[in-house]
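Kindly review both lines to help learners:
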Amino acid sequence: MPTVALSHSPSCAPRATSTPFGFATTHVDTTLALAADHAALDCDLWEMALLSCARKHRSLLWYKYHHSVLRRSTLAAMRKQQLSSRTAAFTQTSATPFSSAAIAMLLQPLASVTVAPPPLTTAAGVSPLSTPEPTFAETASSSCTPTTALTNAVAANETASSADASVKQPPTRESKAPPSPPPSSGSWRAMLVTLFAMISPEWGKESMELENDFLDDLRVKSVPSHISEVVASKDKAMFWRYDMDSYAANRHNEDRSQYIHDTFTDEVTGEATPLFFCACYDGHGGEQAVEFVQRKLFANIKARLVAGGESTKLSIINGFRDTDEEFHRQSRRKFQKGEWTACSVGACAVIALMVGPKLFVASCGDCRAIMAFRDASGALSVEQITADHSANEVGEQRRLRVLHPDDYDIVREIGARNFYVKGRLQPTRSLGDTYMKVKDVNKAPMPRGLRIHGSFKRPYITAVPDVFEVDVAHRHPEFLVLGSDGLYGEMSNMDIARHVAKFRDAGAPNVSAALREAVLERVSQYYGFSVADMEDIVPGERRNYHDDITIDVLHFSPPSTDCAAPHAAAA
């Protein structure tokens, strides 16, 4: 079993102890530095050695630094081994530069001329040595084949190189070492590799950038703390208008909003269909996952739709799965390099996809979608389309306990009526969160706060969404509201629908922005100050009062004048 040695300051008196794991350690009162043999210490032993150290030396920065050193050294050894194996033949045959005589012999069958090698030069004070002249310069003829010429070129190169070496390093009188035997001629493969190297010298200099192709996929482009936009429909038969507003409470806005006008052509039927895609994303743990989902989710769904052969619902589900699996691959590669944060971030999503006259709503996480209707009398009613995938929901708790009977702590209560999956995450479905889904990640060394202990027979959370189809032509909805938990945590569904209807009838230029103002007003009243004071608080500090708020409103029809009159009279 390898030994973990801990270096310390000479001025400190160490004391040797034995840990329960059998590791020899030295405890000192000053800062310790890990000096283990990284190659001989596997992942499990590394973690045991880490646990045997003092608590203050198990901080995330200390761990991340040494794990990065271990990973970098491993990758460097792998690159060196691969580079050595790929360039072995090239090094064997091209270590000594070709002499001019060998090159002349190689080109002689093509030029059909006799080329004599250049005379050997001697250094000052050194007598010229007699060297045998290469016979090919005098006997070469046009009947010499390229294969014979290449064989003679290799032999001539070795002879000329030996002669050059003997000129530069003449033997002394005291030297009695026997002359070195002439090098043997190379094999056919070596000669062909040499010829190929002469034609394409960059062959032996191939770049070994093996793990940089995925870095751009997890890049983060921070968005402004406040974004607001209104988009008119290109096809009034689908919807009337789309409003969005996103307001940051965190230092970096972890929410995203997205809309796309597009058309896809089914590869099977060849039919072109217009579509409109809008989505609300709520990230947690950082911005990497929510940025990745914003770039990839619609592209993966559209690719499934274009390929054909499956229903629209199944295309949406598979699009979510493809996005989640792709993020897992990227985050695990970064985790292997010591960047564990890529495995601890995730994003919830709620989307609305209009394919022609059909509306599909999909939810994965605790974002929500509600739809408002009006009856013949003009009365407003609201319907929650999606279900909240949260550990606070009794139905989700029951589902998790059925799927994970061996984990007694699959749902843990932390605080008053706040439940978390394995005590880590409140959403029971999300995109990303690799450490909650991939068992191998939890086997590797990682911060203790992220490690999941349990059976791990299957992923603890999933990225499979709930998909709902709404017949817009038959039900005649008035509007659809997509929002993050920053909205639905402050207002009920009916309150939201009433505010949206009031702002629509009042002719608000952006209903989403007006609704966000109403949310901030309610929060500020609760804490006893004005909305202006709330907005003056810098992002990051606002998180003490409310979460990031993102609201998307999809208007299927313009406000009716008959409905606007009662609101105007009430105002």
In short: The chain has a mean pLDDT of 73. The longest strand covers residues 272-284.
